Amino acid sequence: MSWDVEIDEHTCIGSGMCAALVPEVFALDGAVAHTLTPSVDADETVLDAADSCPAMAITVTDGGREIGPRP
């Protein structure tokens, strides 16, 4: 099973929380983060990164259904 991961570059504040938690998925590029791959294997740590984003800029979807960030 794989998940799709997106970062809203207009919302991202470049805190680096995502890159620190999952450096194989997220990286800082100047003042904002970006994904290194649009699709990832299902991994709770990716959801943790979405939950930890102070700007709520990360969206994780599974088959078109948003699963992160969690409420």
UniProtKB/TrEMBL annotation:
Keywords: 3Fe-4S, Electron transport, Iron, Iron-sulfur, Metal-binding, Transport. Its cofactor is [3Fe-4S] cluster. Residues 3-31 form the 4Fe-4S ferredoxin-type domain. GO terms for molecular function: 3 iron, 4 sulfur cluster binding; electron transfer activity; iron ion binding. This is Ferredoxin. The keyword Cell division does not apply. Gene3D superfamilies: 3.30.70.20. Ferredoxins are iron-sulfur proteins that transfer electrons in a wide variety of metabolic reactions.
